[in-house]
């Protein structure tokens, strides 16, 4: 498993295939393993790259946790591995990072794949939930938090077959990283103003049973981004790349091939 040193962090990543690069950014509190189905299938046609964000799984901890700093790490990492510009896919928190990249480093983005994510900042209620989660981690440990949080990421029918794998994907993240990342998520900016200004083509992928980012939110985002397409996957919750990998890969392949042919 290769690493690249970016500033003060060693970033672990997988890099498979050749051709047009696709960079996959995982969500919270996950790791690059959430993209294993995509790297396996899409690397037959394109170069596919998935990284562990700083502090997650096999990447070392950064000095600062913020969406802004994570975006800079990702862009500098892309430069290090000669994958800039690229198609960038961001899941949930990875989508927030992708918005920050588009805002500050638009030349790094050929096109966007926004997966189970939203443009809005946290509501006050959402911030309070994150603060309660932080308190629980500090009082009871990360296991108590993950035991309650992870099932919410999956559609009910998928929990039996995927919850164990999801727990494995999250293995290794420390309580410190969970707490600092929850703070960063609560403090992230609102990106609604950015949507109509986005020039890159965008594919928005939603889960029909996603309780955290309902499809209606994704539809609103698709209407605001000028060159966008929306795919709503049935029988999926907040983890469409893992819950419906074949449907997800098909939607991504169609999107990228349409860009290549256009």
Outline the secondary-structure elements:
Layout: E1 3-6, E2 9-16, E3 21-25, H1 36-42, E4 47-51, H2 67-80, E5 86-91, H3 93-104, E6 109-115, H4 124-140, H5 142-149, H6 159-169, H7 175-186, E7 202-207, H8 215-224, E8 228-233, H9 240-243, H10 245-261
Helix pairs in contact: 1-10, 2-3, 4-5, 4-7
List keywords for this structure.
single chain, Rossmann fold, 262 residues, alpha/beta
Structural summary, described in words:
This protein has 262 residues and is α/β, with parallel strands linked by helices. The chain has one domain (3-261): 3-Layer(aba) Sandwich (Rossmann fold), CATH 3.40.50.1820. It has 10 helices and 8 strands. The protein has helices spanning 36-42, 67-80, 93-104, 124-140, 142-149, 159-169, 175-186, 215-224, 240-243, 245-261; strands at residues 3-6, 9-16, 21-25, 47-51, 86-91, 109-115, 202-207, 228-233. Strands 1-2-4-3-5-6-7-8 form an 8-stranded mixed beta sheet, with helices on both faces. Helix 3 (93-104) links the parallel strand 5 (86-91) and strand 6 (109-115). The termini are far apart.
Low-confidence stretches: none
Overall pLDDT metric: 97
Overall form: globular
Could you say how many structural domains there are in total? 1
CATH architecture: 3-Layer(aba) Sandwich
Order of helices and strands: EEEHEHEHEHHHHEHEHH
Side by side, the strands of the main sheet go 1-2-4-3-5-6-7-8
The count of strands amounts to 8
What Rg, in angstroms, do the CA atoms define? 17 Å
Structural class, judged by helices and strands? alpha/beta
Distance from first to last alpha carbon: 35 Å
CATH superfamily: Alpha/Beta hydrolase fold, catalytic domain
- Sheet with most strands: 8 strands, mixed
CATH class: Alpha Beta
Beta content: 15-25%
Estimate percent helicity. 40-55%
Q: Might you state the CATH topology name? A: Rossmann fold
Number of helices: 10
């Amino acid at each position: 498993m290769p690493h690249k040193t970016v500033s003060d962090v060693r970033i672990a990543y997988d890099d498979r295939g050749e051709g047009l690069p696709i960079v996959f950014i995982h969500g919270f509190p996950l790791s690059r393993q959430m993209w294993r189905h995509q790297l396996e299938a899409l690397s037959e046609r394109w170069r596919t790259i998935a990284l562990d964000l700083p502090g997650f799984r096999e990447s070392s901890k950064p000095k600062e946790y913020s969406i802004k700093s994570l975006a800079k790490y990702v862009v500098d990492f892309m430069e290090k591995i000669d994958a800039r510009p690229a198609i960038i896919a961001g899941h949930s928190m990875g989508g927030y990072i992708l918005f920050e990249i588009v805002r500050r480093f638009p030349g790094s983005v050929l096109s966007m794949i926004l997966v189970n994510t939203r443009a809005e900042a946290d509501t006050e209620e959402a911030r309070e939930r994150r603060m309660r989660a932080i308190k629980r981690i500090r009082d009871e440990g990360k296991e108590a938090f993950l035991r309650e949080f992870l099932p919410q990421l999956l559609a009910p029918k998928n929990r039996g077959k995927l919850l164990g794998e999801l727990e494995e994907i999250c293995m290794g993240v420390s309580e410190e990283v969970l707490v600092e990342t929850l703070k960063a998520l609560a403090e992230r900016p609102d990106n609604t103003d950015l949507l109509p200004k986005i020039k890159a083509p965008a594919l928005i992928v939603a889960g029909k049973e996603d309780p955290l980012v309902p499809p209606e939110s994704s539809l609103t985002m698709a209407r605001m981004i000028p060159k966008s397409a929306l795919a709503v996957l049935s029988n999926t919750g907040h983890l469409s790349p893992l819950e419906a990998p074949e449907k997800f890969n098909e939607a991504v392949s169609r999107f990228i091939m349409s860009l290549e042919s256009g």
